[in-house]
Design a protein that fits this description.
The complex is a heterodimer of chains A (about 325) and B (about 325).
Chain A: H1 4-14, H2 18-21, H3 24-33, H4 35-58, H5 71-74, H6 81-88, H7 91-110, H8 112-123, H9 127-138, H10 145-155, H11 162-169, H12 181-209, H13 213-221, H14 226-251, H15 258-264, H16 270-273, H17 276-286, H18 290-317
Chain B: H1 8-11, H2 15-19, H3 26-61, H4 65-69, H5 83-90, H6 92-124, H7 131-143, H8 147-157, H9 164-168, H10 175-188, H11 191-199, H12 204-215, H13 217-233, H14 236-241, H15 250-259, H16 273-318
The chains are: A mainly alpha (about 325), B mainly alpha (about 325).
Chain lengths: ~325, ~325
């Protein structure tokens, strides 16, 4: 009879209480049971540790005088020297200004165009024409940046280019597009639209396809015109996607198109085409000023992050979709 | 989320409804018609703006360079010649670059796709302890990265400069692709399936390789294509990490010829100005042909790839 009491006491062991479930040993057991999942994840984790977090750790050289012998960790600290040098250099205003110029110009022109295209394509009656338009408009996205810039050089060539031939046909003087500072920004933005607008349009088309067709039918019954339906049904319907993509675009504002800018650079257009990232490339990799250029790169990243945080906050205040 | 939902299917069965549209006045119908005309014209102009430069490059690549130079080529090639193409195919740099690109593309795609698929599947499993923290580890890198210089120094410290690894490893896993793959697994692999498989004694490995992967063909196709296109078109990692020009991928060779106007192999033997000018024009012709040759493979594959990319955009949008 005396056995019943220990047996009752022993019961919680057989059926663990919620607290016991969270105990360390059970948690370890769960982790151990999932070991195959960790093995699957391991290559990706190793990758980001080596190629993302190690460079991130190395960012400290922005505050140091990096030398290859001492490496990231043991190079001597110099504080904000490199940042101050950059801000006092004559390139600072020019490089930051150029970056903001093409970033903002690109955003103002290149961001709305895919939305407009998607709204128009979505209204097309013929499925075949719709599909054709989509395919054609997004095909340039598959052409490499090198080739797109190569196309610019041949098409805009002052002696034999298509555009200058047309200008001369109209009686104008040929323009040396790739060799003039004032043409860099327009060419940069227009080629960006030419190459990417069609591809960006796809996401909006997907969002438009998700809008309940019953809304359109109801509006039609009420006599709404196409423009009215675009304004009152389509636009509000894709607004969350638009907001998220806008915030993402802001977050990448200072990063995009660096490769293209680098390719488009000629000695004659440097006064507008040298942006922060190309400057980092020239100062860092071509002149081996590692710490100095790492500092400039960090300045760029932080500026970017700040923009992202600000715009995400604005979107949240306005009760729009946000990233987090 | 199906693109195919056509609004028309909804109002066809109940005709009476469409009779109840008296408010669609004549003016509105003209308004809609005007809208259609304007919309169609805008789209046609956009199509023209995209297609014409490409078309021009194609016809210029087979035209007599003098005719192009004098601005006589607009709609049709004139004085057809294949000299540009012959020169390309005789240029060993192009062939060498093409060979390198194929190696980098195959190897890079294999590494990226397998890493992403395995990693994304693990992250899609809600029962994996620490999943949120591990995911955060990836997401952070989307918003902050160490920058170009430290990446270069890391690759250098790893002794990868001037090796194939410098081209295929540093950009292997894109977090955005990882997120797309993860949400694909979350939406298409039902939990019940896994529970049933586990009941039958399948391990996580077995379930992933024998059940999940065969069910994920659209995702695998998408990932392969994204990476093939990216590797085929990339030049920057090769530019910063490779010094030995026998290892240059096609895009870097193209950059040196198309943009830096490196004419060393076009056979200019000096001499008088006339022959120099002629050589210049041949060089231009070669550029047109080169643009065509390097873009053609992807353009031919495009109709085949389109379906998958559209799906990819939708998986991305669902997230």
């Amino acid at each position: 009879m005396s056995r019943t009491i220990p047996a009752r006491r022993g019961r919680p062991v057989a059926a663990p209480s919620p607290q016991a479930k969270n105990s360390l040993s059970l948690r370890l057991k769960r982790i151990f049971r999932a070991w195959q999942l960790y093995v699957l994840l391991a290559p990706a984790i190793i990758y980001i540790l080596v190629f993302k977090y190690w460079p991130m750790y190395g960012v400290q050289i922005a505050f140091k005088n990096y030398n290859p012998v001492d490496g990231f960790t043991d190079s001597p600290w110099v504080g904000l020297t490199h940042f101050i040098r950059f801000m006092n250099s004559y390139q600072f205003g020019q490089v930051v200004g150029n970056t903001l110029w093409i970033a903002v110009l690109g955003l103002l022109v290149a961001f709305p165009i895919p939305i407009i295209l998607a709204l128009l394509v979505n209204q097309l009656q013929s499925e075949r024409f719709k599909k054709f338009t989509q395919t054609v408009l997004y095909s340039p996205a598959f052409i490499s940046t090198v080739v797109v810039v190569g196309i610019m050089f041949v098409v805009l060539s002052p002696r034999s280019g298509l555009v200058n031939n047309a200008i001369q046909l109209g009686g104008g003087e040929p323009i040396f597009f790739m060799g003039s500072a004032e043409w860099f920004r327009p060419i940069y933005v227009i080629s960006d639209v030419w190459q990417n607008a069609g591809f960006s349009m796809i996401v909006y088309l997907a969002a438009l396809a998700a809008i309940d067709p019953a809304l359109h039918d109801a509006a039609k019954v009420d006599g709404a015109s196409k423009l009215q339906r675009i304004r009152h049904i389509d636009l509000p319907g894709i607004m969350p996607v638009v907001t998220i993509l806008f915030i993402l675009a802001i977050g990448n504002l200072l990063n995009v198109g660096f490769e293209k800018a680098l390719l488009m650079q000629t000695p004659l257009n440097l006064s507008t085409s040298e942006i922060i990232q190309t400057y980092v490339y020239h100062a860092g990799l071509q002149q081996a000023q590692f710490s100095y250029s790492a500092a400039i790169g960090l300045f760029n990243s932080l500026l970017n992050l700040a923009l992202l945080l600000v715009f995400n906050t604005i979107a949240r205040r306005a009760n729009q979709a946000t990233l987090w | 989320m199906s693109l195919k939902t056509s609004p028309r299917t909804i109002d066809t069965p109940n005709r009476p409804l469409s009779q109840g549209r008296p408010r669609q006045t004549l003016r509105d119908r003209y308004g809609d018609r005007a809208f259609n005309i304007v919309a169609t014209s805008i789209l046609l102009l956009s199509i023209l703006a995209v297609v014409y430069p490409l078309y021009f490059i194609v016809i210029a690549s087979v035209s007599d360079p003098n005719a192009v130079y004098e601005g006589k080529v607009w709609l049709f090639p004139s004085g057809v010649t294949t000299e540009g193409y012959e020169r390309i195919f005789a240029d060993s740099r192009i062939w060498n670059g093409l060979g390198n690109t194929v190696i980098y593309t195959v190897l890079g795609t294999a590494i990226s796709v397998s890493t992403i698929l395995c990693g994304a599947y693990a992250l899609s499993r809600k029962d994996m302890p620490g999943r949120k923290i591990l995911m955060l580890l990836f997401v952070i890198t989307m918003f902050f990265d160490g920058g170009l210089i430290t990446k270069y120094l890391v690759v250098r410290d790893l002794g990868m400069l001037d090796t194939v690894w410098a081209v295929v490893l540093p950009g292997a896993v894109g977090v955005w692709n990882l997120i797309i793959a993860r949400s694909f697994f979350e939406h298409t692999i039902p939990n019940e399936l896994r529970e049933a498989a586990q009941m039958d004694g399948a391990t996580d490995f077995k379930f992933f390789f024998q059940m999940v992967l065969p069910l994920s063909k659209p995702l695998i196709m998408l990932m392969i294509m994204v990476h093939v296109v990216a590797h085929w078109n990339s030049f920057f990692d090769a530019l910063i990490f490779l010094n030995d020009d026998s290892k240059y991928p096609l895009q870097l060779v193209l950059r040196n010829i198309l943009i830096q106007s490196d004419v060393s192999s076009t056979g200019t033997t000096g001499g008088d100005i006339a022959s120099y000018a002629a050589a210049q024009r041949i060089a231009e012709l070669t550029k047109y042909a080169m643009i065509v040759v390097s873009s053609l493979p992807l353009m031919i594959a495009l109709p085949f790839m389109q379906k998958h990319f559209t799906k990819g955009a939708m998986i991305g949008a669902v997230k």
